[in-house]
Amino acid sequence: MSESSLSLYQLSRHDLEQQLCSWGFPPIHAARLLKYVYREGICSPREMYELPAVLRGRLEDALTADELTTCSEIQSSDGFTRKYLLGLTDGCRVETVLMHFRGRATACVSSQVGCAMGCVFCATAQMGLVRQLTAGEIVQQVVHANRVLMELGAPQLRNVVLMGMGEPLHNYDAVMKAIGILCEPAGLAIGPRHITLSTVGVIPGIIRLADERQPVNLAVSLHAATQEERAKLVPPARAWPLDELVTACRYYAEKMKRRIFFEWALIEGQNDSEEQAATLGTLLQGLPSHVNLIPLNPIANYDGLPTSNPSAKRFQAILAEHDIPSTIRQRRGIDIAAGCGQLAVETPPQQRVACLSE
Ligand code: SAH
Predict the structure, then answer these.
(1) What is the pTM of this model?
(2) 327-346 burial string, b = 16+ CB within 10 Å, else e?
(3) Span 321-344, mean pLDDT?
(4) What are phi and psi of 49, to 5 degrees?
(5) Cα of 95 to ligand 1 centre, how many Å?
(6) C-alpha angle with apex 195: 194 to 199, nearest 5 degrees?
(7) Which of 340, 345, 357 for a ligand 1 pocket mutation test, highest count of atoms within 8 Å of Cβ?
């Protein structure tokens, strides 16, 4: 680790302890430093009075604690959802959403600037991939959300979902490092069971999560229950076919002894028929699962519409006949373009480097 470029939010407790030792300080100071940063919102070493003065000076010279800048902020009309477009040091922007409802606060964070996956109904996909986020930039989004909660006098953040811009399993190492930092007991101390990672279905990543026994929740964006229909909505299905994806999910569920969440954006006339519900019910037989049915958030450049509430309920009833539990997700924040990537796409384009669907 080069001393001149220690980015505070990028450091795990282990990294910090190593750094302290290399300077000749006892590693115990790492926990106090993390408490200052993540619990008390004190990021300037000068103000960390419980640390020895010599160490404060050393940290002051070595650490950078760049904050994300708020480029825009909007609130849903019901006040429960706040969406932020946050600026990174190189001028790129990512979306972070804070949902705060009945004492339960969830931050939805981005894992990449843009996305290479190309799902046809997703606004982020229209940007292509601009760049990967670092672990520190993922952590900073959560810190931002938590700071808003502190200012509101609301209880501390308990849940984090990686369902913002990007494909977390396409940025595996940074995402896992960020999760480790978020779960650090001396820091934000988010429980791994309160973290949900959502993937388009990157099979090698799902296997790796299981083999490494990463204790977070897994959500898989399914959206269709046949290979042909899925490949039309979710282009990565061509690289990672549905039958192999379901096999990987069974492996994961068996190894982790936990259920998987499946996401299904309900699009009128596309994937919301009773027959499609029955096919999904059959596909998931014997796999511990919970299906989240999310009526589509309409976006620019895609003419799909959300399924009506009665049709969503019929779809749900057929899943129930197959013993598959499901929830119809309320589209909180639809009036603030809270669908993945919508805010970023509505602002001037950023340079993109790749798009898997091309
Ligand atoms: N790359 C990850 C995270 C993406 S966003 C993934 O694919 O899971 C999280 C969820 O929002 C995904 O299920 C995604 O398919 C869904 N989503 C994206 N755009 C949407 C829209 N316009 N309406 C409803 N759901 C959408």
Answers:
(1) 0.93
(2) ebeebebbebbbbbbbbbbe
(3) 71
(4) -65, -20
(5) 13
(6) 145
(7) 340
